Amino acid sequence: MKIKFGSVEENIITREEFPIQKAKEILKNEIISVLGYGVQGPGQSLNLRDNGFQVIVGQRKNSSSWRKALQDGWIEGESLFSLEEASKRGSIIMYLLSDAGQIDFWPRLYQYLFCGKSLYFSHGFGLTFFNQTKINPPKNIDIFLVAPKGSGTSLRRFFKEQKGINSSYAIYQDYSGKSLEKALSIGIGIGSGYLFQTSFKNEVYSDLVGERGTLMGAIQGIFSAQYQILREKGHSPSESFNETVEELTQSLMPLVSEKGMDWMYTNCSTTAQRGALDWWKQFRDATLPIFHKLYNEVSSGKEAKRIIKSNLDVNYRLKLKKELEELKNSELWSVGDIIRNLRPEKKHDKK
User: Fold this and answer.
1) Residue among 123, 235, 292, 348 flagged as catalytic
2) Residue in 41, 40, 32 with CA at minimum distance from that of residue 59
3) What is the pTM of this model?
4) Residue 289 Cα distances to 231, 260, 276, 284, angstroms
């Protein structure tokens, strides 16, 4: 359906207008091959399987992800194969390896992209920055994208709760004339709440900016700064964490999700309202130059170049583990670990 956001009109696809029965009918003769069982692979493949689609998984044998796939009920030789075998068998190949993994496996995948097959992405990175990734697909296949706006873990959790994460969709190459219906069918099949239209380039630009901005990078930076100033001024670890993270994630963000920021404000004290309204523009003005710089780095390809270089470093995993351990062991998140275990539901789980 067409929905207007002010003066802008967008295509929004809902479950009501594109029900799961329609999706299954469209893909009834397709074998969906999910390559990769890391971040998005488990959630998307399991949701498709539970919805009754023909799904197989391709993964590097004897890896931790291979073992996880076995634990999730995929059967070696029946529904779980090597990356090469799954690439050969699938008519729709869902390319869900990491960006670095996609670059590495691409020369081998290319030989299985026969005329009439479909290639699916959940991120526009590989094709948008093809000069750096060297991912140049053949012209006689369909290429499309569905990108859930959340982690694969959340996608699966919401699916099991009969909810859904919203996803974007895009068509890169429509060889058969049926790319759109295939993309929407998989989007509904993986449990999307609704689907909104984008392009491969816009998806990767917005995704990279979001991850480095309010979704992960900026929010961690703000958490760290506020926690630090409270501790420096003599506030206890518990008070500092509760005022920085716990109240936001447990109390206020659910209100924002329910009806928006203004509604959250109306459900806080007048003192909180006044302070928030007086200060938010100062934070916007302080961070806007950083976001300009961030978007320029992403759109110029500099960020992609840096990502590819670091991810292809043979010691990348060791360096990543060290960085994440430093984050986990910081006082902020060490306190957070203690606070989370004090939540009533956690105590109930232990009984």
Assistant:
1) 123
2) 41
3) 0.91
4) 28, 25, 21, 9
Query: What pLDDT sits at residue 81?
Result: 98
- Residue-wise pLDDT for 315-338, tens only, equals 998 999 999 999 999 999 999 999
Tell me the angle at which helices 41-50 and 152-160 cross, rounded to the nearest 10 degrees. 30
Quick one: average pLDDT of 152-175? 95
Q: pLDDT tens, 14-64?
A: 999 999 999 999 999 999 999 999 989 999 999 999 999 999 999 999 899
The answer to whether domain 2-199 has CATH 3.40.50.720 is yes
pLDDT in the model for residue 116:
94
- The secondary element (H helix, E strand) that includes residue 227 is helix 217-232
Among the listed residues 147, 153, 281, 278, the one whose alpha carbon sits nearest the alpha carbon of residue 204:
147
Residue 350 has pLDDT above 60, yes or no: no
The CATH architecture one would assign to domain 210-350 is Orthogonal Bundle (1.10)
Domain boundaries in the chain? 2-199, 210-350
Task: Name residue 114's amino acid.
Answer: F
Burial pattern 271-303, b for ≥16 Cβ within 10 A else e, equals eeeeeeeeeeeeeeeebeeeeeebbebbbeeeb
**Residue 239 CB-half CA count within 13 A:** 8
Question: What share of the chain in percent tops pLDDT 70?
Answer: 98
CA distance 316 to 309: 10
- CA 36 to CA 81: how far, in whole Å? 11
E strand spans, the chain: 2-5, 8-14, 32-35, 55-58, 80-81, 92-95, 118-121, 142-148, 165-173, 192-197
Verify whether residue 123 is a known catalytic residue. Answer: yes
What 8-state DSSP symbol labels residue 313?
A: S
Residues 35, 86: Cα–Cα separation, whole Å: 7
